[in-house]
Write the structure tokens for this entry.
Amino acid sequence: MNRLHASPCRDERGAGLVALPWAVLAYLTFLTLAVQAAVYFYSTSVLTAVGHDATRRAAFGGGSPAAIADAERWLRSSIGPAVDIERLRWSTTGETVALELAARPPTVLIDASALIGLQHIERRFEVRRELARFAG
């Protein structure tokens, strides 16, 4: 009898049916964690860019309350409803405008962010105040 085409032993029959669901579950778990990490990094990138631009807008407006309100309105509309902003604190000094931003990134399917440590995004931006001067 040819050993290459021999039927498997009785002990090995059905072993693939037991391992397959566990392998699929492990694959889907790792895929979910990878997607959640990608969403976190994308959210971090967007918040960093928009936060810097909003701070720059407020600083170019001289750091006035109207300029800060306009920059905050622009920031919230640019980020949209997907990212939950937990803290948004503006401060101005004689020379700078600063923004402290804390947010919670969106979740995918389940809140797996706690498992991989990607729960909060915190950023601080500081831009020097600029006043437009026109020679007249």
Notes: The chain has a mean pLDDT of 83.
